[in-house]
Amino acid sequence: MMHSRAQASILFKEKRYRDALRAVEDGLASIKDFFARFGQEEAFSQSNEVRGLKRFARDIAESCR
Length: 65
Prior knowledge:
The chain has helices spanning about 1-15, 15-35, 40-45, 50-65. The chain is mainly alpha-helical.
């Protein structure tokens, strides 16, 4: 989560909004895969890290408009 957010933050500051959004989406996919490997798929929707990344993705998406 921290790696994805850091990478997306750099891209966001460079006004590369679509790339930033893609970085967040890739991070979310990685987290989802992590939970799935351990049979904890339901934990994905309950994760504070996931909520934070989704919130950041919404903020980025608003900047794309």
